[in-house]
Amino acid sequence: MEGTPLFTGMNVIELDETDSTNTYAKKLLESEKPMEGTVVITHHQTKGRGQQGNVWHTEKGKNLTCSYIFYPVFLGADKHFYLNMVVSLAVKEVCEVFLEDEVKVKWPNDVYFGKSKIAGILIENSISGSSVITSIAGIGINVNQENFDESLPNPSSLSLLAGREIPVGEVLQQLSTYLEKYYLQLRKGNFHFLQRAYTEALFRYNQTAYFKRGEQTFKGEVAGIARDGKLLIHSNGKELRFTMQEIQFVI
Ligand code: BTN
């Protein structure tokens, strides 16, 4: 169990309803500079945004939908993927607290228990010159939702998997704690620690798996990530590198 956070989640902006907590945080940053670690949370997100322009659906009052604001000005723009590692590792650990079992990070930042997606992350950074200036870490964790849209591939929730209802506030508290733990590692420049932890947490790491690239399916092994965050796959004796748009896991 980690200690109480010093700044992450100390300032909470709680909204009954908003379109997207990421959008709210973005607008807020245009007019003021809330303290680092400020979290925007809503009970009803009406236009949740996901990765690659997808929509993030969530049932009113059932799940955690929030966005944390950080100012990682110490981080070079070329290292922005470390923010994905920080947030993914934190969400993975939070889910493990409630599931008492191992949770994985499907590259780049989907959080999976077995074959089920239980959380998603949308990080939006602003960059100036060679540094990251602001980072909005949008996190959606399926907490107590039991029914999901049929179009979604293998969704689940903490309560479905744990077999009990889980207070959303408890999940938020844990999330602030673990985010701070990993963010402070980043601030200290512990890049190797983060890269190792993230690599070891990867879904299908070192396992033979199938991937889809366009219409083509191929076999390979997740070998880790490159410095720029690309996924490394060993296939047919070669090391291949992919961006998020270029590859899909076959689950
Ligand atoms: C994904 O898996 O595609 C990422 C989903 C991210 C959803 C969260 S919910 C809180 C925050 N606000 C948003 O509009 N999106 C993120």
Question: Percent range for helical residues?
Answer: 25-40%
State the order of secondary-structure elements, H for helix, E for strand. Answer: EHEEEEHEEEEHHHEEEEE
The biggest sheet, with number of strands, parallel, antiparallel or mixed sense and barrel status, is: 7 strands, mixed
Strand content: 25-35%
- The 3D shape can be described as globular
* Cα end-to-end separation: 32 Å
Strand order of the largest sheet: 1-2-5-9-8-7-6
Number of helices: 5
Oligomer: single chain
Label the structural class.
alpha+beta
Task: Identify low-pLDDT runs.
Answer: none
Instruction: State the total count of DSSP E strands.
Output: 14
Bound molecules: biotin
Radius of gyration: 18 Å
Report the mean per-residue pLDDT as an integer.
Answer: 96
